[in-house]
Specification:
With about 190 residues, the protein is of the alpha+beta class. About 35% of the residues lie in helices and about 20% in strands.
Length: about 190
């Protein structure tokens, strides 16, 4: 389901000026590619993938369809910093996950692991979480103009994927410029 649309504020005092928008549009017309300025420092990379009528899917890191192999529950609890040693902690585990200490060394259930990948650990879910927290611009009611769309499970029945799409090449250009404005060391690149 589409959760929200976020547009971009264009104005003085930032890279997102009317002149930049005009330059980006001209560049896109000439090259059929977004105008992506390079941040001075890069610690994360957002990849974009053409999704035909749905715009451009954004992922934090390269696209992958498969989660990594599932760990045991004990390994999962340790990696997530989830206390599970005492009786009270075991009760909290029972309340949340529905099993006790005798099952901690079993592999995390496939359904849970896939759901977590689609909603939290997958590259599209990471992009969703990252960009949801960034002030790229105002929420929009209309689908007009350059924008980002935030989706939760709307690809098919039973879908749990959290994802974000950029509407067009101009949206990708404005996203990169806004990330630079916010001094975020994130580069936007085309995925393989």
């Amino acid at each position: 389901m589409l959760q929200s649309r976020r547009g971009f504020l264009i104005g003085a005092g930032s890279l997102l000026t009317a002149a930049f928008v005009a330059d980006a549009r001209s560049f896109i017309r000439r090259t059929s590619r977004p105008l992506l300025a390079s941040p001075t420092q890069v610690t994360q990379t957002l990849h974009w993938y053409d999704c035909d009528d749905d715009g451009y899917l954004l992922t934090l890191g390269p696209w992958t369809m498969e989660p990594p192999p599932a760990p045991t529950w004990r390994e999962f609890f340790i990696s997530e910093g989830i206390p599970h040693q005492t009786e009270a902690e075991a009760e909290r585990i029972w309340d949340r996950y529905g099993f006790g200490p005798e099952d901690y060394d079993k592999t995390v259930s496939e359904d849970y692991w896939w759901d977590r990948f689609e909603m939290q650990d997958g590259p599209w879910a990471k992009a969703y979480s990252l960009l949801r927290a960034v002030d790229v611009g105002p929420r929009l009611q209309s689908a007009r103009g350059p924008l980002l769309e935030f989706h939760e499970g709307d690809c098919h029945p039973g879908d749990n994927m959290f994802r974000v799409t950029a509407r067009d090449e101009l949206s990708l250009s404005l996203l990169q410029a806004r990330l630079i404005d916010l001094s975020m060391p994130i580069k936007v690149v085309e995925g393989d």
